[in-house]
Amino acid sequence: MNIPTQAILFDLDGTLVDNMMVHHRAWQKSLKELGLDYSLERVKAEIHGVNLEILQNLFGDKYTLEEYNQIAWDKEAAYRDIFAADFAANIVPGALDFIRQAHAVGIPMAIGTAGPKENAEFVVENLGIGDLMGHLVHSGMVSRGKPDPEVFQQAAGALGVDLKDCVIFEDSVTGAKAANNAGCPVMVLTTTHTPPEFAALDVASFRPDFRGLRVEQTNDGFMLVG
Q1: N or C terminus: fewer CB in 10 A for the chain?
Q2: Could you tell me the CA-to-CA distances from 217 to 109, 154, 225 in Å, in that order?
Q3: Global pTM exceeds 0.85
């Protein structure tokens, strides 16, 4: 597999860290406190998207906006507490080696995540990649969530690269759809979903992790090889 590119954009949750089950456990805890006793399987199947939208879809006008924001904050605090207990075990194999190799070659890289600022910074800090990324775009910086490609548009713009010239790494169906909507090749990490779930989308490659991938410099940019 050889994909020409000018930059790499990464999703974060489920892509660089295999942490979606941590999110599911945090949602399960928060929903139980609100009177909804969901199994982890049900959380995984039904709870997706931006926190405020999830809560409003579940509870309607039961809570005020201020209360919803506090519930969302508490859920994310629970997520960080659960995750911090065993962070290293959840790093996707090969992710750090790949990012370091790509940075050494000189390719611009950025992160575009649907997660809130606190979570994104928590993960980037614990991965130790803050100085290797040209930019970080989180949910608080966009008005439209995935599958709208706004988060990737901002990330590419911050790098000074046309979005269509980027390769995107994702793990979710909505994230891959955002990449398709942007006209970008997308590499899907199968940490969260199986390939058949992406049947309606255009996916360049499915991979269990980053091992075996590298970036090479070319006369007119870079090549993702693996």
Answers
A1: N
A2: 14, 24, 10
A3: yes
Task: State in words which class domain 20-84 has.
Answer: mainly alpha
Token pair of 201, please? 């989308």
Q: Alpha-carbon dihedral of residues 35, 38, 40, 43, nearest 10 degrees?
A: -100
Q: What is the pLDDT of residues 163-195, one digit of tens each?
A: 999 999 999 999 999 999 999 999 999 998 999
Distance CA 4, CA 223 (A): 4
| Burial status of residue 37 (CB atoms within 10 A of its CB: 0-12, 13-18, 19 or more) | exposed
Computed over its alpha carbons, how large is the radius of gyration of the chain?
17
Side by side, the strands of the sheet bearing 214-218 are: 2-5, 221-225, 214-218
CATH number of 2-18+91-225: 3.40.50.1000
Query: What residues does each domain of the chain span?
Result: 2-18+91-225, 20-84
Whether 20-84 and 2-18+91-225 are alike in CATH topology: the answer is no
